[in-house]
């Protein structure tokens, strides 16, 4: 089980929905989005301060990490 899955185990379904673009995580779950963003920031991900670019970076990271969970 990865750190992402351990830390956000109750929210994996919501994170999958964000990856599948059925929800906008930053609008529908802003607190969760901030926690996920902080999670990646603490692991060395650099954010630009641009909301759109940062959101896409978070989604890209989630896509990669959640795909590894399935594999």
What would you say this structure looks like, in words?
The chain is mostly helical and 71 residues long. It has one domain. The chain is built from five helices and no strands. The chain has helices at 3-7, 12-19, 25-28, 30-42, 51-70. The longest helix is centred in the C-terminal third of the chain and has 20 residues, at 51-70. The termini are close together.
Write the layout of secondary structure elements.
Layout: H1 3-7, H2 12-19, H3 25-28, H4 30-42, H5 51-70
Helix pairs in contact: 2-5
Short structural description:
The chain is mainly alpha-helical.
Quickly list its features:
mainly alpha, 70% helix
Overall outline = globular
Query: Mind summarizing the main beta sheet?
Result: none
Q: Tell me the series of helices and strands, N- to C-terminal.
A: HHHHH
Helix and strand content put the structural class at: mainly alpha
Strand content of the residues, in percent? under 5%
Proportion of residues in helical segments: over 70%
Calculate the mean pLDDT score and round it. Answer: 93
Oligomer: single chain
The low-pLDDT segments are none
Straight-line N-to-C gap: 12 Å
Rg of Cα set: 11 Å
Overall number of strands: 0
Q: Please report the number of helical segments.
A: 5
Overall number of domains: 1
